[in-house]
Each structure stands twice: as C-alpha cells, then as structure tokens.
Amino acid sequence: MENRGIEDMFDFRRFPKDAAVLLLLLIYFPVGICLMLIRIFVGVHVFLVSCALPESFIRRFIVRIMCSVLGMHVRTKNPRSRDKNTKLYICNHVTEFDHNIINLLTPCHTPQLEGSTGFVCWARGFMEIRSASGQGAIGDTLQRYCSTEGTPPLLLFPEEETTNGRAGLLKFSSWPFSLTDSIQPVALRVTRPLIALSTPDSSWMKELLWTFFAPCTVYHVSWLPTVSRQDGESIQEFANKVQEVKPMFAG
User: Fold this and answer.
1) CB within 8 A of 131, min separation 6: which ones?
2) Considering the entire predicted model, what is its pTM?
3) SS3 212
4) Which residues pair with 219 in a beta bridge?
5) Backbone region of residue 31 per phi and psi (left: phi > 0; alpha: psi in -120 to 50; beta: other values)
6) Of 91, 102, 112, 239, which has the fewest beta carbons less than 10 angstroms from its beta carbon?
7) Helix H or strand E encompassing 220
8) CB neighbours of 182 closer than 8 A, spacing ≥ 6?
9) Pairing mode, strands 182-191 and 217-223
10) How far apart are CA 119 and CA 46, in angstroms?
11) SS3 breakdown of the chain: % helix, strand, coil, rounded to 5?
C-alpha cells in the first residue's frame, strides 16, 4: 500500500483503457441503453413500493428483489455478526447508493450532511438534519440521536468521499467516532463489469443512470466485529483503530 498514491483510489475515466474490453462495451452499448430505459420505468415502481410499505423485513426483502431487477445485487458476509445493540455503523464509501444498499439489509439512517434538502434528500433515503448549523451542531444532534432509545442505528461514511474501493481508504474523519463509544465497522466492496463505478465530480443522477446502463453492480457487504473505545483513548486514536481493524477494501 505504501507504493500507491491517492490518485489510485479514484477512477478518472468512465470507460476502460483495454481495447478488447472497450470493443465489448461498444457491442453492449445498445443493450445497455435499452436496459437503462426499462430500469428507469422499474425504478419508479421501486420508489413507490418503498414509500408505500412500512419499514419491516418484508419491505426490505421486496425492495431488495426489485433492486436486483435494476441490476443492483447485494451479497452479505457474516450476517450473524451484525450487532443488534450498536447505534453506529461505520462504512467505507464506494458509490452514491451505499446507504440504500445497507438499508436493504438492516434499518439504519444516514444523515444528509451537505447537498440537496427537502424532497430530494428524503427520496434518496437520507435523514435531513434541520436544526444543525455547522459541524459542531451536527455532532451534538447526532449524539443525542444515538443516545435515544428505540431509534435505528446511524450509518456514517468517515471517508466523506467516494473512492473506487480498490487501492485503500481515505483518512477517516474523526468526528463520527465522538458520537458513541461502541461502533460496528461495515466493509463494502463493489464490482461492476465494463465501466467504472464512479468518477470524481459526477452527480448522483448521472451515477444512477450509469448504474441502470451497466449489466449489473454487485455490492459485497461484510459485517466486522464491533469495536469499543478504551479509557484514555482519544477520538482520533479510536478512528485510527477502527480504520485498521481490517482492510475494508480487500477483495
């Protein structure tokens, strides 16, 4: 890992460099366009179903099956390792839809820290923090949320930017680790044939259309052991310890 630079963590090209793969992509292109149009239609129904059904295992199962039609497949590893008592999940960040995928497996909320608010925020599956103004206020709000009985766990991405998930992890921001003394890391690996998972500065809407265009996108979710903060351990030390629990990018 020492020989890799930060540029290796991002895909700056949407299309492959390999001539054979590029030729295969050109052959697939009309099929991909048809798939994208069909999946846009199906995606509207997935959204309506997810809105109409109350939160439950049945709802998550139905939506997960429908997402498979959209080309978004979910595979889990060590599902019994999920800690039902934890109030905070920490995950590496690969695509704009990671929070939606984790939410198919277990109820959790991901706050919208920046970007669109209102209907778009809600439609994308984010939890809007209306009262927060600044990082400190956000932390206080989420800390109170974590201490409230009966609320679903939070899901946070301390990298704060998406990467390709192959070369390593961006340095974790320390503030999420101040919310609670016990967290469960979630390792996410995403694979997709023919085209890159994401490119810098691409909008979530473009990423959604490319997801519909691609043959499939497979999300591999692994539940890692719960990590607790020790007495005298600083927040940054806690963050570093969680980041080193296991290479989340290992595939």
Assistant:
1) 137, 141
2) 0.89
3) helix
4) 74, 190
5) alpha
6) 112
7) strand 217-223
8) 86, 87, 88, 226, 227, 228, 229
9) antiparallel
10) 17
11) 40, 15, 45
